[in-house]
């Protein structure tokens, strides 16, 4: 089992080290912003690697891969006889019903919630009262069709996380704790709360890559662990195979058109936990192979880097599994590469002659000429060797971000108003971040800042210099925060 942390050569499991080396090479070639990756076969770890500053102890949010944890909590409740797939949602969540419900809402079952076929668009979060996620989905959702007839990505996981709490009196991770303990998972596994003070089953689980892999292995083996069936086998078979057709919604995407199980994506070869930004667990059941990854590819486009990763694993590893092989020089090279870690994506070079003009110059943004200027008043780059800072003033005062030049440098992000342990409530602390500055053209620099904390998100800030003027364009890639860093403006040197 993964919990034994038994590392073996890929060759001993019928996989060539050359193929894993090629996998890592292609991940870097496609500029996949990977934080950590593990390959497991037959319960043995054949590859584990991280990109600095991440390591095996880093607790990483896995976003929508959290949904599969909720599905397993439902399966555990079914195993324990406290819930059924045919149970009506309105019965499980009757304490949240405040208005006469739509007739289709009354028909909606646990099965419908697990298969994202509620019959309405889901994820109903009214801007005037964002603290009523569950209540609003039950009372105010606009139905378009009978439940169980149409796949649409929605709030089924949120409803089921709330249902687990209603039925058992426990948050879904607490309810799963007996299983987590048997898998050797850390007591530090936790979940962000949603606005109604319920564990955010659709997005909030935070854990290490190794804990992610331990849980994934249980799904890979369909609930069977050390000879004990922890979750009902019939439920696990249903969860990990297609329960509803979804190609109409997802336009032939290889990871999203193979059907959907129970809060899990299905391909012809695997069942998959999938979370925003490369939080992936691919379970290739027929060859007892699993890949687990964490990263931040937000902004790469819907189904871009995660599809690339799946295809790379499918064609470079899964398809090439054979008999045991002899270890050779490639295995030594692989060990060295795994130790060195994955290289982070870079887009430019660390220096341009124009840096002499920019360095130390304060640029101000004329408010009267900038419509979407993010409230910035001025900014200044101070670069010294391979590190530096950008200092700026926005609506909340003077701020500073530390960056590396051609390399990521870790520091604190200078805002305290984004949510932390509970959605909608400010963390009231600066979050960990990392940033890198590169020159992508002679007179254009790119500053990339990544939040790597309870929240994960990033923004690309492009500064294009032309004469004495500079265009500042910032595009954020995050969910429910950093919106105030989106914008485009122009600036000129102070005093001119």
Protein architecture, described:
This protein has 14 helices and 21 strands. With 496 residues, the chain is an alpha+beta fold. The chain has 2 domains: 2-340, DD-peptidase/beta-lactamase superfamily (Beta-lactamase); 355-493, Calycin beta-barrel core domain (Lipocalin). Helix content is 25%, strand content 25%. The protein has helices spanning 17-29, 66-79, 89-92, 103-107, 110-114, 133-139, 156-168, 172-182, 209-220, 233-239, 247-250, 305-316, 329-340, 355-358; strands at 34-41, 44-50, 60-61, 190-191, 205-207, 224-225, 228-229, 265-266, 271-275, 279-284, 289-295, 362-364, 378-384, 387-394, 397-405, 409-412, 432-441, 444-452, 456-466, 469-477, 487-493.
Features:
14 helices, six-stranded antiparallel β-sheet, nine-stranded mixed beta barrel, alpha+beta
Write out the CATH superfamily name of the largest domain.
DD-peptidase/beta-lactamase superfamily
Beta-strand content bin? 15-25%
Number of strands: 21
Largest sheet: 9 strands, mixed, barrel
Strand order of the largest sheet: 12-13-14-15-17-18-19-20-21
Instruction: Compute the number of structural domains.
Output: 2
The N- to C-terminal Cα distance equals 66 Å
**Given this structure, which CATH class of the largest domain is correct?**
Alpha Beta
Share of helix among residues?
10-25%
Radius of gyration: 24 Å
- How would you describe the shape? globular
Q: Which fold name fills CATH's third level, the topology of the largest domain?
A: Beta-lactamase
- Regions with little confidence, pLDDT below 50 for 5+ residues: none
Enumerate how many helices there are, as a single number: 14
* Residue-averaged pLDDT: 93
Structural class: alpha+beta
CATH architecture descriptor of the largest domain: 3-Layer(aba) Sandwich
